[in-house]
Each structure stands twice: as C-alpha cells, then as structure tokens.
Amino acid sequence: METQVATNWTRLVAVGLVALFAAVAPAAAAEPSVAGLWQKVDEATGKPVVWFLFFDNGGSYQGVTAKLFPRSDGTASPRTCTACPDDRKGAPFLGLPLIRDMKRAGLKYHDGNILDPRDGKIYSASMTVSPDGQTLTVRGYIGFEFLGRNETWYRLPDDAGKQLDPVIVAKYMPGQVTTSAMRRPQGAGKSTDHAR
Fold first, then answer.
1. Domain 36-185 class?
2. Of all residues in the chain, what percent are helix, strand and coil, respectively (each to 5)?
3. Which of 49, 112, 150, 160 suits a disulfide with 101, CB 3.0-4.6 Å?
C-alpha cells in the first residue's frame, strides 16, 4: 500500500513538473526581443534623431544606425565617423554599428558596449526591453552600471522598414528586400519625413 502511494505521489510530482515546464517555456519564448527598429527622440524637441536596427549577430545583439534625421540646430551631420577609434573609423554614419556584443537574458541585455560617435568613446552598456516590447532603456556607463546614464528609445512599427535606405535593407534585412526598394530613385535617401 505504501509503495503504491509513493508511486502515485511520484507520478503526481512528475506530472506537475511537466505541466510547470510546459507553462513556463512558452512564456519565456513569448518575451519580446530587441530585434527590430527603434527610434531615439530628442528630449527637448520631441523630434526623431536616429533610428536603430537591432539584430542577432551570432548569439549577441548589435545595433546599427538605420536612418538619420536632420539636426535640430540645422547644422549638417558628419557623413563618416572620424572620431571612431577602432574598425569603425571613417565608416559612414548610416549603417554604423553603435551597439555591440549585447548578450540576452530574457528582457535584459548585458555585457555589451556603445560608441559615442561624437567623441569616439566606447562605454559599457546594458539594455532592457519593456514587457510589452514597446520601449527600450539603453544604459551606457563607465566601470559600474550605477554610474551610467539611461535613454529611452521607442519601437517602430514593422512597416517602418519601408522608409530605410535600400543599402541598409539589403545588408541587414535581406529577407525584406523588395523590388520597390531596389528601384528607389537617386536622391531619395535625402528624405526628411519623420515617423510618428
């Protein structure tokens, strides 16, 4: 009798554990990822500054500049990263990898770095995607994470990719290359339309 109770108890525990793992696995898989397009907004004007495209780069995540907007002061943006200290030196700003080596742990990304192209400094970085997947908190820091600064970026809709330069689409989103993007007329990359 005791053996049968122990066997039933073992089966019950095993079924409970299987049910628990079955419930937890889809929840973890359903968490939003940083992959996709994000917009940084000027806090003072509310206007877009830059779009970033994040993607999985062999197990770590990378963010590249996907669309540049005119500066709020009217001055021209530099075309290449002259202050970059590494392999990005002299690279065009459009498509420049500013965030590298982010390791995913659920909604958090850690152990990465972020480049400030204005002065070429590279900072340690971490990121957190909101549970609804609509905001991204990016934190750059020196040494200790609590000594850093946060920025909040906003997810763009999937169809925002239609506004990207065809070179960015071909290089970083090859599955989304369309014939209309490839037939884009010369000079179309100078658009100043803003996503809302």
1. mainly beta
2. 30, 35, 40
3. 112
